[in-house]
Amino acid sequence: MKQEQKQEIALMRYRAIAPLVAGLDDSFPSQTAFYEAVSAKGITTPDGRLRHFAPATIERWYCDYNKYGFDGLIPKGRADAGISRKLDPDLQGQIRYLKTNYPRMSAAAIFRQLSDNGSPMDRYRNPRSAAL
């Protein structure tokens, strides 16, 4: 995500919590009521769509703003971006080897090949596909 997009998202979040930042007026009996009202009303995203965020999400934005200022509203990238969360490095190497040497091999064929070779593939099997 580009920096400009992150800034637009941060501004959207700030607009949502701005009444709290400025001081909650009497139309809301509590902050919780404010979060619920904003959630029910919806928030226009930078791409122009109306989205309904959970009240807890809006509360988190407010807490992040109080703790870190405007920078707390800027979306963070994933800490594990580009790193597989499911496949161990050995298995990744075996898959790369098969795709490099057999580029036309399908994913299902690679899965079967690795299973036949004794790789621990059962933990990667989709539990919904077992019922089919």
Model description:
The chain has 132 residues and is mainly alpha-helical. The chain has two domains: 3-73, no CATH class; 89-130, no CATH class. It contains six helices and two strands; from the N terminus they run ααββαααα. It has a two-stranded antiparallel sheet. A hairpin with a 5-residue loop joins strand 1 and strand 2 (50-51). Helix 1 (3-22) packs across helix 3 (55-68) and helix 2 (31-41) crosses helix 3.
Please report the distance between the alpha carbons of the first and last residues: 38 Å
Estimate the strand proportion. Answer: under 5%
Q: So what's the overall shape?
A: elongated
Please work out how many helical segments DSSP would assign: 6
Question: Mean pLDDT score, rounded?
Answer: 85
Q: Specify the structural class.
A: mainly alpha
Q: How many separate structural domains?
A: 2
Sheet with the most strands, sense and barrel status: 2 strands, antiparallel
Give the proportion of residues in helices.
40-55%
Give me the side-by-side strand order of the main sheet. 1-2
Question: What is the structure about, briefly put?
Answer:
The chain has 6 helices and 2 strands.
